[in-house]
Structures are given as C-alpha cells and as structure tokens.
# Entry
Amino acid sequence: MNNMLVEHTPVLAETLAEHIRLSKGAVVIDATVGHGGHSSIFGRTLDKAGLIFGLDVDEKCLEEAQRNLSGLSCQVVLRRANFSALSTEIAKEGIEKADLIIADLGICSAQLTDAAKGLSFQENMRLDMRLDNRLGTNAADIVNNTDEKDLSDVIYNFGQERASRKIARSIVQYRETRKITTTAQLSNIVCRALGQSPTSRKRKTHPATKTFQSLRIAVNSELESLKKLLSAAPEILAQGGQIAIISFHSLEDKLVKEDFKKNKIAGIYEIITKKPMIATRTEILANPRARSAKLRIARKQE
# Structure
C-alpha cells in the first residue's frame, strides 16, 4: 500500500491551539513534523517573520510535510534528523531560541500501512520497524539474533508485557527451524505463546501489541532519543517559551512528567498541565488513534 494514500490526522490539535498562543514572528520547532499537521495549525498564525523548523527521520513524511506546509506565509525549514540531535540541527540553521517545541511521539498513520516500514501486525509485511531506514539494526535482526534473556528483557522493559519470558522462549524455539522475516510470523508466534487467536476481538488490543511496541522502541532508540530532547529543551527555549509533548504510552509519559517536575523544582519550568490532557470522546470517535494520547505542556520561566 502507498503510505501517502493514508490521511494522517494530527492528535489533540484543537487542544494545542487553545492552550498555546504565539506571536506572529515566533520560532516553532516541530520535532516530529510528520505530514505537517500540527505545524500547519501554528504556521497559520505566523507571518513572514515567523519560522517553522521541522525534523523527521522519515523521508516520505518530509516530502508530504513540504507539500502541506508550502502555502504558509512563514518560513518553513525541514530537515531529516532525529530530534535527539535537536541542538546540533538548530545550530546549523543559526536558530538561537525557540518559542515553542512540540513533539508528537506517536507513529504516523501512514507509516503503519507502509509495507517498507514493517510495523503492522494487521497486515503481513517484511519485519523491519525502522522509522529511519539509515539505521543498521531492524526488528528481524533483534528477534533472530538476541539471546532469550535479553529478548525477554526488551519485551518486558519496553512493552510492559508480563508474559515476556514465555514470548521470548517461543520466539527462540521458532527460530531454531526457520528465520522470522515477516510481521505475520512474529504476530502468530506471540499469539500462540499467549494462547490467543490473532483474529480474536475479545480484547481491545491485539495480543501482539506490546511485543511489537517493545521492538519498535528498541530498534529506534525511542526512549533514549526522548531523554535527549527533554534534556536539550530548557537551553533551546526562549524565556516564556513552551514545550508540548504528546505521548502514547506510560513509558514516554513518565519521562515527560518527571522531566517537567525536575525543571519546575529547579525554577526553570512552570507546568501548564497539572494533569495530562486527553482527547475528547468526539475526537476519539473521529480519530481512534487519539484514545491513548496524553499532552503535557510546560513554559520556561521568564
């Protein structure tokens, strides 16, 4: 399937627009620009003195973002880079301070249906999971070459899967006779290990969800990258500048919550969202991806 045929709806867009006000000449850093959904919302409030600086590791997303943001009055600069390197990337562009840093940590809808990404357990794809195809290690490498204990640790630590040992054992037993090369193979192995059918609808989430999440996080070093972004943000933000992070699972949300709290204690941040903001029922019905989204916002003290 051509991933550009899948429309991506930005999560919590109206909520962000309600809580963040920018001057017309503001500098906005979209650390996960995707198709440009969030950037287009803020970009419409900027004039020619304003700047949208967007990062993404996915070339296809950047191409789509370039098209979607081309009509804005403000400057738009897009770069193919991981947000873990944000400080380096803004230095290259001569950007000193930002008025807003936003990061949507979820997977773009189009990426899930892109066969080249190999992320989905809903369709059979070549097992990969690299959001950035320049990375050396993919998910197939991990499931075929990692020893049982380390594999169990990956599934437990990054997927919060209680049956991680059972799943890791099943993966290791399966690969003794053949390599695991597709998402369907892996999904079926996990489902059998859990004694569940991959087509069952008894649970809200697919039985392989946590295992797939864990491997995607491991392949893309997602938590380490988030830590680097959070660490760099206070120095990049202008006084009164805001940081808004949308997370999709508790591992990410915990890192954001703890970072904001640490910076509040240090007198650097004022926390705008005492509790994470979540999507309304109306938004979830229109965009089911929003159901697990949590938005936290902090402002740098003036």
